[in-house]
């Protein structure tokens, strides 16, 4: 009897992984370029009711009605390159090794990305659209020279604009990139440049059609394998360019924009006069032409969302697909665009490159039919690096130890307790040529009009946002706002009793959650040098100590096992003297051994992604970087204050602690003595 049932049972067991894979949802991440929070239909519809100039976008409205709007979601920076680097690598800007500030086209570090995480979960992956963080020649790059080309950073397929300035031109063939060494706007299909075939190919149509084609082909080739698509539009960023004609009739597999794929006719809308079509609902408005163009660009994106969703419905995968729509930063004021006209920055102050809410609080909608409550709204604060942990949870894999984010699934599914996100931003506008000051818009606070941006920093402490601009030294105070009650940041709490208590905590916190930038390019030099870089990382204050500290034992060094099988240990390290230190670590030479260490909330040691068990890693910020000047990259030690510092040690694949070493500046490298460690008493 046992033999009679063996083969059916075996078949059932073998089928389980495939069944589970089929149940995991597809994920489409749609990233806009410079679309403001105020472009959300909830805000524009209210303007329409008040008789103010407003945009009418049914596709965006439907997306919001069928999903959840995250009203306090932040980009990682108020500029595209650093925002995208943090989004795709899952770390905030204080941990980005290469891309901070205006380091366009440099290569993101060799580290986990959204693509590699989803590949590890068994997903087919693609990036279609703008990249701008691939390395190689500035304003150009090729698959051969760009060390962080998308297919080298976790994406099975790539189509789009490799460098960031090419991504300013919505007709890549007819509107070449004048500052590129190649004098062209590079559109790449895998490892082939196809710009010459992009006749009259408008960016929104080109990228949407290619995305639809990839979704259709991928699903039909293997309907059981889930897919992850990052669709990174270049609209509505400048140039302010508009389509050749109306959006094609119908939507989905047989309607809307279609990928033709023939030389000089890549999409079905590649005909007519370029940069000529204003949407009829705006054509007769007595608006400036630049605003009609901007509204048309948003309308085109809105239509493309409808087209994508209908494609999913036609393939019968709509209810098993998560759509995340967001933007890389606040609205721009380039190419004639005036963000005051529609108030694209919403009820806030600030635009692109500002640390105020309008600069990097971004429009965000998540749609997952049957799972994410339709028409819902969440004001839980979150940030770009949370998407890596969220996608890992969706895919059923552990988020990389390096990730700074938390999964947003409890919020999105309205299920369980949502952990607080770690919200942090640093950005300098000093190298921004004619964009070094906040615009003098009359609806901005007078003190912010035409104010120098300079070095800017933001951190959240509980529900309070601390922000400072034009920083001259670490002693500069934070302005403090309750952005839930005061989204326009009009009531600074820094001089209140509560604000005065938060000020020193925020000053310590920002030093404890970042690493000093330490990358130098042989041609372009270095970036992101901050006025607070030399400050030592503060030790725990007396009131912050966890109570009684006890010596480390063999049992306490084993740590606590998590549900995902990894181990964590919360230790305390006694730094004997204030000074500059370098740390080292190695795991046992055991297959699958991995480890990661944080000092306070800052990355310290990384032996996870691409790590060879038994090898030694250091705390150098140059590890994992490419294309840098080896003689000037990764050389800065960590300044530490004397006293107790918390360590979070995460491991996988071996028992006990990894071997840890340190070297004080001017001293010799040595094993950290066990007496230097403590744990909190139970």
UniProtKB/TrEMBL annotation:
GO MF annotation, one: arylsulfatase activity
Top-level taxon: Bacteria
Domain (Sulfatase N-terminal): residue spans on this chain: 25-396
Enzyme class: hydrolase
Pfam families linked to this entry: Sulfatase
EC code: 3.1.6.1
Region (Disordered): 616-635
Gene3D superfamilies linked: 3.30.1120.10, Alkaline Phosphatase, subunit A
Record's signal peptide: 1-21
Identification of the protein by name: Arylsulfatase
Species this protein is from: Akkermansia muciniphila
